[in-house]
Amino acid sequence: MPSATPTNRPSPNGASPRRQRTIARAVACEGTGLHTGATVRVRIKPGPPGTGVVFVRTDLPGAPRIEASVANRIAQPRRTAIACGDAEVHTVEHLLSAAHGLGVDNLEVELDAFEAPGLDGSAIRYVELLGEAGLVEQDAPRREIVLRETITVEGRNGATLTASPNESGLRVSYSLDYPVKSLGKQTVSLDVTSERYAAEVAPARTFCLKAEADLLRMLGLGLGATFQNTLVFDEDGVIENTLRFPDEAARHKLLDLVGDLALLGASVRANVVAVKSGHDLNLELVRKILAAPPE
Fold first, then answer.
1. Which of 84, 116, 117, 184 has the fewest CB atoms within 10 Å of its CB?
2. Could you please report the per-residue DSSP string of the chain?
3. Considering the domain boundaries, does residue 276 fall inside one?
4. Active site residue 279
5. Would you say residue 114 lies in a domain?
6. Which CATH number do you get for residue 215?
């Protein structure tokens, strides 16, 4: 089946397609990797038109570059990781989510370690950084994928993802269902605009169950996670923390989904409905969208 080709399609109202965006100046921050616990410094710089988001491992000889593309994705538990040759970058989904949610197409992201900083466990600090840098339009139309047909992928334990045509842009919905009364069933939906993303999705923090947190530590993961940057749920609620939204867990799943959709390398006009999906299923959907016939 031929690959989907991003197009420079006019807006539904007949206006010219939106131009690509980058940032006006470089910005930087420092934080701890959620899984490694290592201190990492990140510097986010403007990217040329048509290059997408590129990670640069400044701590490695030759400063290898890794394009944020599903073709470079490598399997890692509970996070999205990409690699090119021997160079890897892990836990990129929150930074990519911030860029995609704000409509930023081209960035160069320098890191001095292999895991992006987790910061407060959400994408809000990345949103703030991009805002501090200032967004600028570039002399190139934004690459866009317009679905022609409905695409569905299925995972384990009833997990599904469906993307259907939606001329007005990207709409995302997420439903989770945990056998823990403090989480239970949650569903959240929104049309992805920069304003709604920043206010309603970006502040939502990563989460896990208390039993999962204990297992991750046994496996040598989650070394940088704390009760402050990770919502840890037991039967009675969140441990040593306060929710920012009643449905913060579902909103964080939307955050991850928007970040994984960034690996399309283009914006997409689609209505994406997720039920209990995670990174693996999100990226399977990305692959199927790219494999669909072009419009």
1. 184
2. -PPP--B-PPPTTSPPPPEEEEESS-EEEEEE-TTT--EEEEEEEE--TT--EEEEETTSTT--EEE--GGGEE--TTS-EEEETTEEEE--HHHHHHHHHHT---EEEEESSSB---TTSSSHHHHHHHHHH-EEEEEEEPPEEE-SS-EEEE-GGG-EEEEEE-TT-EEEEEEEE-SSTTT-EEEEEEE--HHHHHHHTTTPPPEEEHHHHHHHHHTT--TT--TTTSEEEETTEETT---SSTTHHHHHHHHHHHHHHGGGSSEEEEEEEEES--HHHHHHHHHHHHHSPP-
3. no
4. yes
5. no
6. 3.30.1700.10
Residue 3: pLDDT band by 50, 70, 90 thresholds?
A: very low
Model pTM?
0.92
Domain count along the chain: 1
Asked if the structure places residue 68 within a domain, the reply is no
Question: Domain range for residue 162?
Answer: 146-253
Q: Is residue 177 part of a domain?
A: yes
Annotated active-site residue in 90, 100, 252, 279: 279
Q: Which two tokens stand for residue 117?
A: 């900083």
